[in-house]
Amino acid sequence: MLLAALAVACAAACAPRVRPNLAPPPEPAWQAKSRELLAVARSLIGAPYLNGGTTPAGFDCSGFVHYVFGEVGIAVPRAMRDLQVTGESVDRAHLSPGDVVFFAIDGRTISHVGIASGPDTFIHAPSSRGRVREESLAIAYWQTRFAEARRIIPGVR
C-alpha cells in the first residue's frame, strides 16, 4: 500500500509541467497608433516652416498636426480653433504621446500647436528657426505659454 501511494505521488510530482504562455499580451491598438504617429512626426524633423504649409515641403504648426494625423489614418481639422474642440481635454500632468498640445504665445490667445512625444516633450513646426523640431515642455518659454492639451487618438488612457 505504501508503495502504491508513493507511485501515485511520484506520478503527480514527476509529470511534465505545462508552461504558461510567456508571450507578452498584445499591444493595445491605441499604443500602436501612438507609436506610428510619433514615427511619422519624427520622420519630419527638419522639414521647413512654411506659413500655410501642409506637406513635407513646408509646414505651419496646424498643417503639421493635420498632416501627421492624416498619415496614420486619423482625420483631424486643419484649423487650430477646430482642433481645440476635437477629442477630449487632458491635464498636462497626464500627457501621452500623440496628445495635441496648444500654446498661447502672447499669453492670452492660443496661437501654436504641436504633438506630445512624451510626458515632457513635443514635436512642432515653429516659425522661429524655421524647421520641425522636438523640444522640451520643461523649457521656461513653453511652460509659461502652455494653454491646454487634447487627446485625439481613440482609446488612449
Write a brief structural summary.
The protein is α+β, with helices and mostly antiparallel strands. 31% of the residues lie in helices and 20% in strands.
Molecular structure report:
About 30% of the residues lie in helices and about 20% in strands. By secondary structure, the chain is of the alpha+beta class. The strands form 2 sheets. Strands 3-8-4-5-6-7 form a 6-stranded antiparallel beta sheet. The protein has a two-stranded antiparallel ribbon with strand order 1-2. Strand 1 (about 55) and strand 2 form a beta hairpin. Helix 2 crosses helix 3 (about 60-70). The model has no long low-confidence stretch (mean pLDDT about 85).
Beta-strand residue fraction = 15-25%
Low-pLDDT sequence parts? none
Query: On the 0-100 scale, what is the average pLDDT?
Result: 87
Largest sheet: 6 strands, antiparallel
Structural class category: alpha+beta
Oligomer: single chain
Strands of the biggest beta sheet: in what spatial order?
3-8-4-5-6-7
* Strand segment tally: 8
Q: Which percent range fits the helix content?
A: 25-40%
Radius of gyration: 24 Å
- Shape verdict: globular
Distance between the termini: 60 Å
Task: Please provide the ordered H/E string of secondary-structure elements.
Answer: HHEEHHEEEEEHE
Number of helices: 5
